[in-house]
Amino acid sequence: MAKEHNGTTPQELPSLTQVYIWECPKLKVFSSGEIIANCFQGIQALPDLNDELVLYNNNLNASVEKLFLLKQ
Known about the structure:
72 residues, alpha/beta, two-stranded parallel sheet, two-stranded parallel ribbon, 1 helix, 4 strands, 17% strand, globular
């Protein structure tokens, strides 16, 4: 996903199940707008694939924020 999103309309990602994040120490939000990802199961910080998926309030942006706070 390299497309810029202005956050004014919900971004629909119906097939998104997991997000892997690595080497992004300044990442605090995934998108400035609402994300609809009904199949989303969580975020995993690579390279440790043994870490549990982070899923907070069934929300991708909240999960990115939670993961960022856990890694500090």
